[in-house]
Amino acid sequence: MTTLVLDLKGNVSRKVAKLKEMRKQRGVTLLEIIIVLGIIGVIAAGVVILAQRAFTAQDITDTINNTNSVRTAMEEAYKDAGEYPADNDPYSLTKTNITDTPTSTSAAIQMLVSLGKVSADEAFNSFSNDAFQIGGVQTSSSSSGNKGFYLLINGLDSETCRNYISQIGAKWDYVAVVKGTAGKSISAPVTNLSGATGTDVLKTLTADNLNVTSIAQTCTNDGDSNIIVMGSR
Q1: Sign (positive/negative) of CA torsion 160, 207, 230, 183?
Q2: Mind listing the pLDDT tens digit for each residue in 133-159?
Q3: Nearest-angstrom CA–CA distance, 57 and 225
Q4: Element (DSSP H or E) covering residue 160
Q5: At residue 62, does pLDDT exceed 70?
Q6: Helix, strand and coil percent figures for the chain, each rounded to 5
Q7: Is the pTM for the entire model greater than 0.90?
């Protein structure tokens, strides 16, 4: 009888020990799963950030190429006209209707497409998908006629705005930042291409303060309300 009781106690002890071991194994397995999921989450977050940066970099490259094409096209189209055209609102334009026959009050960017100077794709800003707003402007307060022009790049957050200026600003005659909403016309973003620089005016025909520090201190508008004003003569 004593032997039987001891055997039963031994079996129970072994089963209890086995049960405890199984519970430990399950606990370790759950912990391992949590760790793996955490690692996957960190990797996924990193991939998303890298993808966002890649998309932004591509948009910057595309917009730089487009604005370079538009700048050249403006110079070619209006070199014999004596001055650049007035700023007519381009924000009703799409990649479909921009190829319609323009009128005397059509936006300059539509004129360039009609003349075959730029393609419909090149006429648009990759960030906001708006057609470029362009307008003639005086080169100085004492000059006559609109011998220069400005081009707006809207829909930019602060980092993208600064990144864009750092890449292309030195190649333009005038660089400034104003606040505005994508899809809406900005009235007289610049009166002439000369004058002093400041926090949001980094470069003019008569002054140049375009450097790392000045770029880092501009483009401070909320969200994507930063608009770069690029000027050329």
Answers
A1: positive
A2: 999 999 999 998 999 999 999 999 999
A3: 19
A4: helix 158-168
A5: yes
A6: 45, 15, 40
A7: no
Mean pLDDT of 196-209: 97
Which residues share a beta bridge with 177?
A: 228
Alpha carbon dihedral 187, 206, 84, 111, in 10-degree steps, equals: -70
The predicted structure's pLDDT at residue 45: 74
The answer to whether residues 107 and 81 touch, using CB atoms and an 8 Å cutoff, is no
* Radius of gyration, CA atoms only, the chain: 31
Helix (H) or strand (E) holding 69: helix 2-78
Residue 142 is encoded by which pair of tokens?
């004492």
Distance of CA 8 to the CA centre of its chain: 76
Bridge partners (DSSP) of residue 229 are: 152, 176
Residue 190: both structure tokens together: 């610049």
Q: Where are the domains of the chain?
A: 41-232
41-232: CATH class: alpha beta
Q: What is the pLDDT of residue 4?
A: 45
CB atoms within 10 A of CB 182: 16
Give the whole-angstrom CA distance, residue 109 versus residue 175. Answer: 20
Q: At what angle do helices 158-168 and 2-78 cross, to 10 degrees?
A: 50
- Token readout for 101 is 């026959």
pLDDT tens-place string over residues 4-57: 444 545 555 665 566 566 555 555 577 777 877 777 777 777 766 666 677 778
Query: What's the residue count for the chain?
Result: 233
